[in-house]
Amino acid sequence: xxxxxxxxxxxxxxxxxxxxxxxxxxxxxxxxxxxxxxxxxxxxxxxxxxxxxxxxxxxxxxxxxxxxxxxxxxxxxxxxxxxxxxxxxxxxxxxxxxxxxxxxxxxxxxxxxxxxxxxxxxxxxxxxxxxxxxxxxxxxxxxxxxxxxxxxxxxxxxxxxxxxxxxx
Length: 168
Description:
The protein is built from 3 helices and 7 strands, in the order ββααβββββα.
């Protein structure tokens, strides 16, 4: 993971990377400001290659033991729409007769990402973008093609069923 770095504006007045986040219309690049100082929920720059390595290291216990990782995949809140919950650092999607999917999304100052792991099928989906138009939240066709549950909350009814399903 040689291309993953943590940058904070408290240390670097200008973030020393060649990527620029844009507004949802591609008209403006997003300027750094004082809110870019804290890191963890932002300020981490990576590549698809490094994130695939990260995923591999999670699977083979180079970062965490299986016991620790499994404990992060346990819902710690009341489920939303019957399927969505939050573990330790992961959003969770699970339901009866469905795969267990863990994922995380994020956006900050013109950047957006989604990292999805279907734990039952051993499928990983990673998208990185520098446009905050919400397009990474509408991947239903891809999920259906990959036979991964649709993890967009707006796709589900309050009773946990998809519109147009037998339960609708």
